[in-house]
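Project outcomes to date are best conveyed with an example. Our students and postdoctoral researchers have been running inverse folding experiments weekly, and each run begins with a structure described purely in tokens. The record below, which covers 536 residues, was selected by the lab manager from last quarter's runs and is presented without edits.
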């Protein structure tokens, strides 16, 4: 069995785009999306400038994050090393677009399913070369069997100095470049990776490509100097040399408001159940309408809304059940789907027990309380593992994300339960318990955000995303709504209520409303920040 890969010799590339056109023709790739394209960058300062090309496409990674995250195995690695796709299984969740660090995947507007370079597998299977290889007038693109020492690709790899894109991602790409310019390989090196003449500008509404990167932010992210510092930038040495991207066709930002809203509703659901279990654990929730009925009702309703938002965000929502019937168990989308189903079921039993007051049901609900609390924790934090599988988004790879999501659940659950408690007749001990939980959740949330933004960053991509929130184009709503309205104001309201400067009910109600508004704004900015750094 051969193992296929590509070598692209950029010294030979003349930027004619014939490979792009041949690929589009061979694979019927619609207008506006690309399986391969020729990025063009200019480097230097006039008159000492030079143009560099970089042919971009799927790298057919040996350790492919796209196949790991794909919930239905629509993307899969063949025995011959080609990473192929089966659009009949694709539900259009766009997770693969977040996982691929090379921006190789797009949503086909004709089918609403993911697509990318598949090495012209249909041609290779009958002994032909990929269309791009055949058409290239300078033989810059080399395909073939990496395991055959006599093949041109194996001999080229043995002879030349080669480079891959983003080797630190650990994807083991099987696309090697000869003579590629570093400035073309690393998208974070340019102020606007979509800029320059002939560019196709795409969606910029949610922090997508086409937004200018603040170069001073890059220097700041690098510890304020060129070289060294926690977020040492590969670009730092280049910033003073000038340069621009002439042509690039990065794909659109995949996740937007529905994903932010899903994080928010899931926090409310998980937090409400968790606080119910905690209240019962400390003996203040027994025989309580708030914790016996309202809390499981909140958990169930917001779990159902969460599931609805997940389905609504799919490009093929009618295929949502593939998540369960064709599930790829390496994907946290699948694991999370089962967690939500189990959590919803436990919430429903708990609610039924609270409403019906039937002995058997009550016994089941009591028994399910602690497994339910574990499911609530899993429902709150599994997204950290899902975002962790989105390997293309370095900002989301934080080890703090799981505990941070738990803190958000406590915050959101406490705020939602407080509003229900204030609307009905709650016991004073319950109000004190929930106000305390809200305060703890807010302080923990603020602490995690501060740690993410102000402690050393793993690399330049993380530093750029953090800087977009701190001082860049995402900073306005982040500081005003997510931090000011969402954290500072509710903490102030709780403090005024505690010292009697405000009636405690008004203070708790205002704090809850503000905290929920702020958390939703925070999720929106957080999702946008992760996607604000270009991948190609
Ligand atoms: Fe191709 Fe990207 Fe998947 Fe690697 S991660 S195999 S480049 S689609």
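After processing, the design step wrote out the following sequence:
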């Amino acid at each position: 069995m051969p193992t296929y890969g590509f070598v692209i010799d950029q010294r030979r590339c003349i930027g004619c785009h014939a490979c792009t056109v041949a690929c589009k023709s061979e694979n019927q790739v619609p207008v506006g999306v690309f399986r391969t394209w020729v990025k063009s960058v200019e480097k230097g300062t006039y008159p000492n400038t030079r143009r560099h090309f970089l042919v971009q496409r799927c790298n057919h990674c040996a350790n492919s994050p796209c196949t790991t995250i794909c919930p239905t195995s629509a993307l899969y690695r063949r025995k011959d090393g080609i990473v192929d796709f089966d659009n009949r299984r694709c539900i259009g969740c766009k997770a693969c677009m977040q996982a691929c660090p090379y921006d190789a995947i797009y949503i086909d507007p004709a089918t609403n399913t993911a697509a990318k370079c598949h090495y012209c597998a249909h041609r290779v299977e009958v002994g032909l070369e990929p269309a791009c290889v055949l058409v290239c007038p300078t033989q810059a693109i080399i395909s073939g069997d990496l395991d055959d020492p006599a093949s041109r690709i194996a001999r080229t790899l043995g002879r030349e100095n080669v480079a891959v894109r983003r080797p630190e991602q650990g994807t083991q790409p099987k696309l090697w470049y000869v003579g590629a310019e570093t400035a073309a390989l690393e998208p974070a090196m340019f102020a606007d990776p979509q800029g320059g003449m002939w560019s196709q500008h795409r969606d910029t509404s949610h922090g997508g490509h086409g937004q200018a990167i603040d170069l001073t932010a890059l220097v700041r992210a690098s510890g304020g100097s060129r070289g060294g510092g926690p977020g040492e930038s590969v670009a730092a040495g280049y910033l003073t040399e000038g340069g621009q991207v002439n042509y690039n066709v990065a794909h659109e930002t995949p996740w937007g408001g529905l994903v932010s809203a899903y994080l928010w509703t899931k926090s409310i659901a998980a937090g409400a159940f968790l606080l119910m279990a905690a209240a019962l654990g400390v003996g203040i929730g027994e025989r309580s309408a708030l914790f016996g009925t309202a809390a499981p009702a909140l958990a169930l309703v917001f779990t159902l809304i969460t599931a609805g938002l997940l389905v609504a965000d799919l490009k093929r929502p009618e295929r949502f059940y593939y998540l369960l019937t064709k599930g790829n168990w390496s994907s946290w989308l699948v694991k999370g789907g089962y967690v939500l189903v189990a959590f919803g079921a436990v919430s429903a039993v708990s609610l039924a027990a609270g409403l019906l007051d039937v002995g058997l049901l009550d016994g089941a609900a009591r028994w399910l309380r602690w497994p339910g609390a574990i499911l609530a924790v899993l429902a709150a934090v599994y997204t950290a593992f899902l975002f962790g599988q989105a390997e293309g988004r370095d900002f989301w790879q934080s080890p703090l994300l799981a505990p941070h999501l738990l803190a958000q659940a406590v915050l959101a659950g406490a705020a939602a339960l407080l509003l229900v408690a204030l609307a009905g007749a709650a016991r004073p001990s319950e109000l004190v318990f929930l106000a305390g939980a809200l305060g703890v959740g807010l302080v923990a949330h603020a602490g995690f955000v501060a740690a993410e933004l102000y402690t050393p960053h793993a690399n330049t991509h993380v530093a750029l995303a953090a800087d977009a929130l701190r001082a860049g184009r995402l900073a306005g709503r982040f500081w005003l709504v997510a931090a000011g309205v969402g954290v500072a104001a509710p903490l102030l309201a709780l403090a005024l209520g505690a010292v009697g400067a405000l009636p405690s009910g008004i203070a708790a109600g205002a704090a809850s409303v503000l905290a929920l508004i702020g958390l939703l704004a925070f999720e929106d900015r957080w999702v946008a920040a992760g996607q604000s750094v270009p991948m190609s």
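Residues 407 and 445 are 6 Å apart (CA to CA). The two ends are 32 Å apart (CA to CA). The training component of this project remains on track.
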